[in-house]
Amino acid sequence: MASLRTVLYLRVWLSAWIITTAEDNFVPRAENVHWFSLDFKTTLNWTTKSSNYTYTVLYSWDDSDWIECLYCSQLIESVCDLTNCLKPFDRIYSADVKTEPASMNHNYDPEELPHTYSGNFNPYIESNISAVKITVQAVDERTVTVNITDPLTSIHQDGKQLSIRDVLKNDLMYKISYYKSGSTGKRDIISESSMAEVSQLDAGQKYCFMVAAYIPSRPKSTQQGAWSEQRCTTGQEDVLQELSLGAWVGAVFILLTILIIVVTVTVLCCRCCQRRNKMLHTSQSSAPV
C-alpha cells in the first residue's frame, strides 16, 4: 500500500515538473496576423500570449528575399507600422512575424523560433480611403459648384505631407450623390476633378450633397471611400415635403384625436339637449290645466 502511494506521489511530481518545464520552454507564436490600412498608413497586427519574448517583422514583395523593417524590430506590442517600408505602394507585399527572446544574450537557435506569415497585401489597391471634405456654392439658380478637399496620408515626401491625390494621381475620381430637399430620389455623378459643377437643378430649390473618393481601377470592394458629411444649399423648401414619416403619423394622430373629441362633445351635447327637451315636455304635460 505504501509503495502504491509512493508511485502515485511520484507520478504527480513528474506531471508537475513536465508542465513547469513546458511553460519555461514555451515560445509564443504570433496569431491572427492581418493587415490594416487607411489612407496608405499600413500596419500589421497580430495577437499573442503575454511572455518575455519580442517580435520582429520582415517583409517581402513579389516573392523577393525577406527584408527587416527598421521600425519593427524586437517589438513588445503586437502591431507594426510598415508605412515607410512598403514603397513603392503598387506592389504585392507579404510579412513574416518572427518570435525572439527579449534578451539577445539568451542562447537560442534561430531555426527553432516560430514564424507566422501574413497574407498578401497591395496598399495601392487595398488601402481604405477616409471621408473627403466638401463645400457647396451656388453659381446661379440651376448650378452648384462642389469643392472637394482630399484626406492627407501619413506619407511625407520632400518635406510635404502627401494627400491621396498625390498617391493615386489620375486614378482618383469622386462620386457625388445629391437630392432635392424633401425628395427620396437621389442622383449620382462621377467627377474627375476636385471642383465639380452640378447643373440642371430646379431653380430656387434646396439641394443636399455628399461625396466619396472613387477609384474605378480598383477591385469593387475597395473602389469607394467613406462618404463625406452632407452639405446643402440654401433655397425654398416645401414644408409638406420636409415632413418625415413620423411627423406625418403624428399629425394624422392629432387630427383624428381632435375629430374624435369634437364628435364626442357634439353627441353629448345633442343628448343633453334631447334629455332637457324631454324633461321640459314631460313637466308641461303633467301640469294642471
From TrEMBL:
Belongs to the tissue factor family. Residues 1-22 form the signal peptide. Residues 11-106 form the Fibronectin type-III domain. Its main location: membrane. This is Tissue factor. Interacts with HSPE; the interaction, inhibited by heparin, promotes the generation of activated factor X and activates coagulation in the presence of activated factor VII. The chain crosses the membrane at residues 245-270. One of its GO terms (cellular component) is plasma membrane. Initiates blood coagulation by forming a complex with circulating factor VII or VIIa. The [TF:VIIa] complex activates factors IX or X by specific limited proteolysis. TF plays a role in normal hemostasis by initiating the cell-surface assembly and propagation of the coagulation protease cascade. The keyword Coiled coil does not apply. It is a single-pass type I membrane protein.
